[in-house]
Amino acid sequence: MAKRKKxxxxxxxxxxxxxxxxxxxxxxxxxGRAAWLQLFKGADLSRMVSRQHLAAELERGxxxxxxxxxxxxxxxxxxxxxxxxxPVKVTDVDGTAYKLSKILGISQAKLRKKLSRxxxxxxxxxxxxxxxxxxxxxxxxPGVYLTTExxxxxxxxxxxxxLLGFSGIDGNGLEGLEKEFNDRLAGRKAQFxxxxxxxxxxxxxxxxGREMDVRGKDIHLTIDSHxxxxxxxxxxxxxxxxxxxxxxxxVVEAASGDVLAMANxxxxxxxxxxxxxPNIWRNRAALDVHEPGSTFKPFLMAAAxxxxxxxxxxxxxxxxxxxxxxxxxxxxxxxxGWLPVHKILRYSSNIGCAKIGLxxxxxxxxxxxxxxxxxxxxxxxxxxxxxxxxRPAAKWNEIDLAAGSFGQGVGVTTVQMAKAFLTIAxxxxxxxxxxxxxxxSDQEDQPKRIFSADVAEKVxxxxxxxxxxxxxxxxxxxxxxxxAGKTGTAQKAHRKGGYGTEYIASFVALVPGxxxxxxxxxxxxxxxxxxxxxxxxxxxxxxxxxxxxAYYGKLPEHRKPTPVMAxxxxxxxxxxxxxxxxxxxxxxxxxxxxxxxxxxxxxxxxILVQKGFVPKLKGQGMKVTKQLPAAGAKxxxxxxAEMVLWVx
Length: 648
Fold this sequence. Notes:
Blueprint (H helix, E strand, L loop, with lengths): L1 H38 L2 H12 E2 L10 E2 L5 E13 L7 H12 L3 H8 L6 E7 L1 H10 L4 E10 L7 H4 L1 E2 L5 E3 H5 L1 H4 L6 E5 L5 E4 L13 E3 L3 H17 L4 E8 L5 E7 L12 H4 L2 H4 L9 H10 L8 E3 L4 E4 L2 E4 L6 E3 H6 L3 H11 L1 H10 L26 H8 L8 H12 L3 E2 L5 E3 L9 E2 L3 H14 L17 E10 L5 E13 L6 E8 L7 H4 L1 H14 L49 H10 L5 E4 L4 E5 L15 E4 L1
Parallel strand pairs: 2-10, 3-23, 23-25
Antiparallel strand pairs: 1-8, 2-3, 3-4, 3-5, 6-7, 8-9, 10-18, 11-12, 11-22, 13-16, 14-15, 17-19, 20-21, 21-22, 24-25
């Protein structure tokens, strides 16, 4: 019995020992396997994980969009694929060169040269279309990669082209607002470029491995797309009709100082900036300095009234249109004798203004016009914003003062003129012009009084006379409402000194004439055969004023109203054959997505934006070929839902 018990105990010990040895072997195997994977295969496995979760793509975030004051899209970005290589990973130089040559249309010799370099990154072809990108992807060539870039697109083509500017192939702003706000608009680069989750969605990380937003930020302008188009069309017609070299125009809202339109002609399409000369890119409204001529005379009147040198009824001898001062003759278009001050402005007498200026004096006049902003930058966020040309008062002689009194011998920009007339419209209080609604500038100038409200009203009264039946600006009259205006016809300085046979024709209007809501200024360089501002610019300004009042519902009811642009429509300034835009019938109303295929991309984007969606654009071209969601689908409830338009 004892022996049997002893044998049973020994068997139990052996079983226990066996289990312990077995577990020891299992754990030793597991630990050995873990050590082998960690120490010997760790690097390879890490790379395999990275291929699944990290994409070593060279990618930059999408550039921010530019919108007008109503949310209409002015500039956006379209996805495009680009091809690059890592030569160190290319296994077959000749074979790769041959296949890429067939797909991309690049010579094999050029490709072999690039593929043979000892480099980790070389661009091969950038911003290719989807069809070519698909062929590159299907070829599965070692060392050849695709990445996503963004092409800048301006859906409205010519609309505000010089103001918007353009960006280059690397996504950096090169001209206009694209350049000025490049730091805000430009997409960011991530240090760890892209991480994919289980669903394949992309996640961008910074150098610390934290998630980051690589998309650039948007900006919203004070520009109104409809009024911008109206202004560009009117300016284009005036310049073409009178064979001018170029022209510029601006529309400003008096109460806020918002620039509603800033137009230049010839027109410029930033989508094809490489085909245009740099002089077409120029935002001449802010960059080109010209002598204003008689449109400068209201500032002389304001200065003289403020310093109590004259009253509206004080008489001056206008010398029957010809007056000699210090050996130089000053001439008037019309022969006038004695005229009160208000009629000197009404009939635009250079001689009368010269005599008022001489009584005012250099110091008073010079300080007044510099206080109005002449000789200083306007403060608008426009690259190259010019100061104009106002020489120091100490360098003015009697002839300079006489000429400066009627707008000769001083240099101004279109934007400066609008800013100065904004002060008159606001009863003598200077307000800053504003071009960007968002983001708001932290350095906006505070309003300040330059002259009294009484003086401003007297100047406005004189300018209202200019647009009366016998005034020089009568062609700008609008039936049923008052207009305060001033014509300008300035001789252009000759390169060799003195004045030549070319002119600047201009006109400014403040409407309504008593408590102005809007300021419109236009100038045309070297119009022919007629060079008078009353003929060249005044009718065009009248067209802009009429359309502006109609657009805001302020045109008198007894007048046949001008059609107002419906929400979501954009009238685009185009060549002469297409100066009148036709509203599309398809709108964003209803609960289903409309069929956008075959539609111009500009119109399709407007419809989606009107509904609250900003689409992604893929491909190159100006017409929609495919859409997501499909036509007839219900509008997504989530405003962040994916909207894609394919274009070609």
